[in-house]
Amino acid sequence: MSAPGIGLGIVGCGWAASEIARASADMADIRIVAACDADPARAAEFAAKTGAALAPSIDALLAHPDVTTVYVGLPHHLLAPTVERALAAGRHVLAEKPLALDAAEARRLGQLAEARGLKLTVFFELRRAGTVEAARKLIADGAIGAPLLVRIRTIIDKRLDYWGAPSALNWRARKAEAGGGVVLMNTIHQLDTLRYITGLKVVRASAEIATMVAPAEVEDTASASLRLVNGAIVSLVASAHSPGAVNEEAIEIEGTLGRLDLPAPFGTTPLRLYRTADKTWSEFAMARLDSHRLMLESFADAILNDHPVPAGAADAAAALATVQAIYRSAAEGRAIDIG
User: Fold this and answer.
1) What's the domain range around 264?
2) 222-225 contacts: CB < 8 A, separation 24 or more?
3) Residues 64, 172: one domain?
């Protein structure tokens, strides 16, 4: 018989899974009970560190009597089929973003989870960053009025070996497996954050993408103009190889009553608010929160108390729809409307 709480099975024992293990180590409601990986040595190392049972396959992990919930941390093209297997086996699922390679597949997985009475959470951990939660409250309280103009910057300086060795590029470099580059890998977090804090969806995209530096089939550079459902315009720029970039993933929102500047969520720069009425800036210093821990706590609460998940398939689908529109616009050379 399963012990009380959540028995977590880990599928994919890479860095992201290590963060899950770290953040859940002293949580009473979550126990890592089994783990598997395509690399047996990596799975064995993870199991030894966490005390989890070593499962030789996904099927064996799903058959483990104490696994009530599955974490899926795999390359993008493997996420959706593995999530579907776990849901079909009657397990709740915590999946890394983007959940699927297209919005329709993400929606289908959400419908499958709902039909089976299961919780499906997508790990958009920026939602639990202190600056993001504070920005959401300020916007809800009307601090900047209605959003008019948004600037999103995803400026990163990745190591070239992020894409693998020149003679053996990894899945991130291959379009069929990754689905996309810096926009899908990184900017998708900020697209989700923008929708989370404003409640506004993207309805049109016009974009250009390019591969300037990366030894990859996917883009490392992007620029896009987006239209929000309320008419606001979003200017987006992304680079995976911007020389010297450190903590330059920011969102600035101008509204009818002021402006809100969200710094990189895991840096030390404070959230800044400008109020047009009195022409003053205010700064909100935020303690650095453990967003992984907070997401896991919300995930556990959703399962154990039947509360809404902190980020679900519908959220992944909304972000993916925008990413797909950006890629399609760049390919077709025209603006793309999003239904």
Assistant:
1) 128-289+320-337
2) 222/181, 222/182, 222/183, 222/187, 222/326, 222/330, 224/326, 224/329
3) no
* Tens-place pLDDT, residues 216-229: 999 999 999 999 99
Beta bridge partners of 63: none
**Residues 330 and 268 occupy one common structural domain:** yes
CA-wise closest residue to 258 among 117, 110, 147: 147
Domain count, the chain: 2
Residue range 249-297, pLDDT digits in tens: 999 999 999 999 999 888 788 999 999 999 999 999 887 889 999 999 9
Whether 170 and 214 map to the same domain: the answer is: yes
For residue 73, tell me if it sits in a domain: yes
Please name the residues in contact with 144: beta carbons below 8 A apart, sequence gap of 6 or more: 138, 253, 254, 255, 256, 257, 258, 259, 260, 273
Give the CATH number of the domain where residue 35 resides.
3.40.50.720
In a domain, 1, yes or no: no
Domain of residue 226, CATH code? 3.30.360.10
Using 50 as the pLDDT threshold, list the residues of the chain that sit under it: 1
Only one residue has tokens 């989700």, namely 192
Q: Do 241 and 218 share a structural domain? A: yes
